[in-house]
Amino acid sequence: MPERLTIAQARRVALAAQGFANPDRSKRVTWAHMAPMIRRLNLLQIDSVNVLVRSHYLPLYSRLGAYPHATLDERSFGTRKRTLFECWAHEASLLPMELHPLMRWRMARARAGNGVYSSMDRFGQEETRYLHEVLDFVTRNGPTAASEVPGGGKAEGGWWGWSKGKLALETLFDQGLVTTATRDGFERLYDIPERVIPPEVLALDTPPEREAIRRLLDLSGQALGIGTEFDLRDYFRLPVAETKTALAELVEGGTLIPVTVQGWKPQAYLHREAKLSRKAGGTALLSPFDPLVWERARAERLFAFHYRIEIYTPAEKRKFGYYVLPFLHQDRIVGRVCLKADRQAGILRANAIHHEPHADVDRTAAALAGELKLMARWLELGHVEAGASGNLAPALKAAL
To answer: What is the spatial distance between Cα 92 and Cα 120, in angstroms, rounded to a whole number?
Structure first.
């Protein structure tokens, strides 16, 4: 392994590790292709925004091409072929079942009052009796929506606008005492783990917290290929002190190799299984919550791509649009597109289209036109319409 990498080498390492190795995205995609990609990524982050498509559907599409939404739904929330479970990882996420034992330390911390959110910890301490009542209700009644919880009240202001019943269920979810049985639309239905997680998974030994964090950091390194201590820690949102201990152990054991990367100030770590590919990349629109770009500072270090999601920015202050997807072409991020699936009209709307300063305008427009048409077919939309906003808009209109 080299002691120093150029930024181009680091980009190719990261892209290859993340499953962007110039795959053929025209082939028919089945679960046999999806499962190993999920295991490579370790998780699919969930987000509620549905202006285009729910974010957890996008990473597999970006890497593999069009696949049936129903296949992922069945594996995530079905009763017969379920192979994924939902928990707090990098925010709320879907993970392979085999990672369940590695996430139990976090649930144990929540039960001890040291969970993901202090608001839930306080609620758990202040409403212990009510939590027991809600858990008993779910145990007796099976899959439960927040609106069905006795004494839950209505959602009106407060923390995330949640009702008392919803906050109780989320606190129990954080503690691992309930889990997601399925989703009705996007609303979680909660049930006890014994009726959702396969018994053979629940029977797996729970590793000590220190071992679980070390193994998760190893998985972070495999998924990223190369990253800083913060990059590696952020993948599963691991605690700071424990990550530093695990990092030292993985370096000593040769799993993570300290390297320098051209232009990076922080220390970088290369995973020993990382591929120093001469060629890596692809053509893909990326979810704002894709692990390639979710750590914005890393995206800027790797791709010179300054990216901020502007959903919560007032419309008049937005620079690139409401729901903007980075556009990867070959081994660079060459543009960004504000997209909306207009399902009523059957149109994929590219409302604002921008290219990066280093991008070739005509090549970027041609590649993006093809990608937008592929996405429209995947989303079962009739055609693509490009708006007039953005420095790439005229070229994209011509390419379409």
So the answer is: 15
